[in-house]
Input
Amino acid sequence: MAGGHREWTFSGRSVRLGHVTEIEPAICAHALHKSFGGRQILNGLSMDLRAGECLGLLGGNGAGKSTLLRILGGTTRPTSGEIKIFGVPLHGDGGTASRAKIGFVGHESMVYRDLSPRENLEVFASLYGLKEVDTEACLQRVGLAHAANRATRTLSRGMLQRLALARATLHNPAILLLDEPFTGLDDSGAGRLREILDDHIAHGGSTLLISHTLPEVAQLCSRGLILDRGKFAHELADVSDAEAIRDIYRQTIATRSD
Amino acid sequence: MSSKTENRVSHPWRDAALPLLTGGFMLAALIMIFFVVPNEKVQGVTQRIFYFHVHLAWMAFGGFGFVAIASAWYLKTGSPRADQLALANAEVGLLFTTLVLVTGAIWARPIWGVWWTWDPRLTMSVVLWAVYAAYIMLRRLGRGDEMITRYAAVLGIVGVLNIPILVLAIRLWRGVHPAVVISEDPEAGLKDPTMIWTLVIAGVAMALLFTWLVSLRARFAAIDDELETLHLEGESR
Amino acid sequence: MWQILRKDLRIEWRTGEILSSMLLLSLLIILVFAFTLEPSRLRGPEFLGGLLWATLLFSGTLALNRSFLLERESGAWSALALAPIEPGSIYLGKLLANLVVLLAGAGVLLPLMVLLLGTRGLQPDALLPVSLILGMVGFAAIGTLFSAMASGTRAREVLMPLLTFPFLAPLLIAASRTTTAGLTGEPLEAVQSWLMLLGAFDLVFVVAGWLFFDYVLED
Output
C-alpha cells in the first residue's frame, strides 16, 4: 500500500493514519476457531482486511462466511483466536470504542419494529455517541425519506434492508461489513447501495463483502477470498473478471473430497 | 482434540483405583453403620441414617461450589472439559440433594412424627434442589442452541451467589436456631468414639462416591459431545 | 444506559403491550386465587402482601420475557452487541426499563387487590413503597439477566420462570413479609433485618448481572 496522509472522519473527529509505508490493517484476524455445539465452523482462520480495500468473501453455503463476519464485527465471540481493529484488540480494553468504527449489515435488519425509521436512527445515533446527526440526510441517501415516520413493522423486505443500510452507515464507519447486502433490494435500492459503497471507498474506507453474485464482487472488490468449511481455500488477487472467479470457485469447491 | 484420545486411554486412577476405593469405603461404612456402631441414646435405630444424611448434605452443598468453579473455568477458557465437569457436578449434586431430602424425610417421620416441615434447613434444601434442577433444565431444553453452555455457566456462578442469601433469608423466616437438628445438641449425640469413627468413614465414603460419580458422568458427557460432533460432521458432508 | 432506558420507555409508551398484558394477566391470576381459595378467608392484610407478590411473580415474568423479545425479534440484539457500549450499561438500561414497567404494574395492581379483597386492617405506611421498590429491584435484576439468556433459546417461555423462581425464593420471603408489614402499618424497625436482606439481595444480583451480561450479550 502506498504511503501518504489519509484522513478518516468519524464521530466528528479526524483520525490521521499517518505518513507511513505500512498502514495498520483495518482488521487483523488471527487463528480464529469457532465451534457451535460439537460442530467446527471456523478452523484456525487468519486473514487481513487492508485499509482502503474492498475484500470479497466467497464460499458455498455453510462455509462459515456469515459466522466469520459476525465474529469480525464482534457480535459473536470466537472460541479462540484474536481480532484487532486498526491494531486494537476487539475483545480487550478499548475494544468497545473500536466498535464505533464498524458498520454491519447482516441477514436480519437489526432494527426496532415498533419505532419509525427516523426514531430508529435516533436511537442508534445516541448509542454510537453521535451528538448531532442528520437523520433526514441519512434516510435520503437510502431512499427512505418518504417513509421516515411510518411504523417499521409495515415496511417491506427491501425497505427494511435500506433501513439496515442506513443504520450501518449512520456513524460513518471506517469499516463496512456487509453480508449479502443486495438481497431484497430493487434496482433503485441497489443503485443507492452502490453509491454509498463508492463513496465509502473513495474516502478510504475498508469493506468486507459477502456475496453470491459474482458480477457484483467483480465490480466492487479489489481482492477475494474463498472460504470452504471454515478454512481459506483460495485467495484471488484479481477479481475483475466474473467468469474467471467462477472457474476458480468451481475448481476449488469441486476439489474437496466428497 | 485431546478429549477424543482421553476417553480411549484408560486411566488407572479413574477406572480402577477410584471405584475400588469408593467400593471399599462404602462397604466399610455400611458395615459400621449397620452392625458396629451402637444405638444412639435418644433416637435409637433410626439415628443411623444420620451418618448418610449429613454427608449427603455436605456433598450436595459442596457440589454447588464445584459447579460454580467449573463454570467460571469454562467462561474463562472455553474448555469443553470444564463444561462437562460443571454438568456432571450439577447432576450428581441433584441426585445427592434428592437423597438428602428423602433420607431426611425417612429420618423425620419416626422422630418428629411428620414427613416434612418448613424448617430453615429443609426449605433451603428444597430451594437448592430447585436451583440444581433449573440448571439441568436449562441445559436440556437449550440443547442445540448455540449459547447454551455459556448461559449455563453464568447460571452456575450466579447460583452460588444465591446460597448465602438463601441461608440468611430462611434463618430469618423460621427463627435462628432450628430445634430439630439434634446433632447440634451436645447432650444426646455422638458420645461413643465408635460413632465418631463411623462418621468419618462414612464421610470419606460419601466424598469418594461423589467424586467417582462425577468422573463417570463427566466422561459420559465428553463421549456425548464427541458423538454429537461426529453426527454433525457427518450431516454436513 | 439512559438511551436504552429511553428507547424502551418510548416503545412501551407507544404500544403499551407489555404493561397491559401484565396487568391483564395479573387480574386473571387474582381471579384464579379468588376462585380456588376462599376469598372470605383471604380478607385481611396478612394475605395481601403474599398474594401480591405471588401474582406479580407470574405476571412480572411475562413482562420481562416480552421485554427481551423486542430485541430478539429483528435481531436488534445483535445491533446492541455491535454498538460501542459496555454490556454492563445495556444491562442497567434494560433493568431500569423493566423496573419502571414492573413498578407501574404493581402500582395499579395493589389498589385493585385491595378493592377486591377487602380493606380491613389496612394502615399503609412508608414501609409499603420501600418494600415494593426494594423487592422489585431484586426481581428485575435477576429477571433481566435470565430473560436475556432465555430469550436466546428455543424454550424461552418455560425456561425463564424455571430459572427465575428458585433464585427468587429469598426475595419472595422477604418481600412478602415486608410488604405485609407495610400494609399493616408496622414500623420500619420491626422488619429491619428483612429490609437489609432485600438490600443485600438487590446489591449482589445487580452487580452480578452487570458483571456477567458481557457473557450473555452475544449472538
Summary: The first helix of chain B runs from residue 2 to 8. The CA atoms of residues 142 and 148 of chain B lie 6 Å apart.
